[in-house]
Amino acid sequence: MGKGTVVRQVRARHPDVWVSVSATTRPPRPGERHGEHYLFVSDDEFDRMIAEGALLEWAVVHGRARYGTPREPLVRALAAGRRALLEIDLQGARQLRASMPEALFVFLAPPSWDELVRRLVGRGTETPQQQERRLETARAELGAATEFDVSIVNVDVRTAADELVALWG
Q1: Which of 15, 76, 82, 98 is spaced 20 to 30 A from 125 at the CA atom?
Q2: CATH number of the CATH domain containing 122
């Protein structure tokens, strides 16, 4: 019940909100589809996207795979007057803050550290080493929550999604 789960809830319940699809160099997990969940690209393709300025932000996440936000789809959505939502990590938020300071930056927080650990372990999609890497990332992100404009505590996915969408007014 983290960022991805809340974003999926926004996508399902608020179709008027445009949701960015991030590019990543990690392989798909079971059930993930290219172009829907992520744009799964090779390292060479990701390098090309960086070199061409095709990414608004990008970062190495959890010490292994790279993720980034393609620029052109967001530019088109904003030009069409759509509300836009990006699912990015702390590194990406910092980069985006520098280039788009007018954006609203929302921190999605777990109800508690214990609940975060329970959700991560219960997901069953990572090895114990990957879980520890994710928890290290989470510690750093939680420590930076004050860098964001608004924080939403994700006790319930539907409520968190509605609170997020309500920020647009």
Answers
A1: 15
A2: 3.40.50.300
